[in-house]
Design a protein that fits this description.
Layout (H helix, E strand, L loop, with lengths): L7 H4 L7 E2 L10 E5 L31 E5 L1 H13 L19 H12 L3
């Protein structure tokens, strides 16, 4: 999130196929991130199916719009390493919870607090 600036609800909706990585030996190591949906955490009482997350289009865009975000070469290295170490396939969530399900918003909030040095 630090390198590309997406919203948390966009990050949890990403799959490996939403990341376009350059070849490892390419001179240009910028990647592209495709954001096409958001899954904000709204709570079980506020969704039709009783799930915590609700699938929506991107904020401030048409419901079927896609946003392409360039990723710095540092992010390319991080993502390539993450995908390889976790043995992720194109249809897998890019960032998963403990059981392979959707990453909880509390995990993202805790990571940001830690990065900012808050307790």
């Amino acid at each position: 999130m630090y390198y590309a600036g997406p919203r948390p609800e966009e990050v949890v909706a990403m799959h490996v196929a939403d990341v376009r990585l350059p070849w490892e030996d390419a001179e240009d190591q910028w990647c592209e991130l495709l954001f096409h949906t958001a899954q904000p955490e709204v709570g079980k009482n506020w969704t039709d199916d009783g799930e915590i997350h609700e699938e929506r289009g991107l904020k401030g865009r048409a419901s079927d719009d896609t946003r392409v975000v360039p990723g710095h070469p540092s992010l390319t290295r991080i993502l390539r390493d993450h995908i390889e170490k976790a043995n992720l396939k194109p249809g897998d969530r890019l960032f998963q919870g403990e059981k392979g399900d959707m990453l909880a918003g509390s995990v993202i909030r805790r990571a940001w607090r830690s990065a900012r040095g808050e307790r």
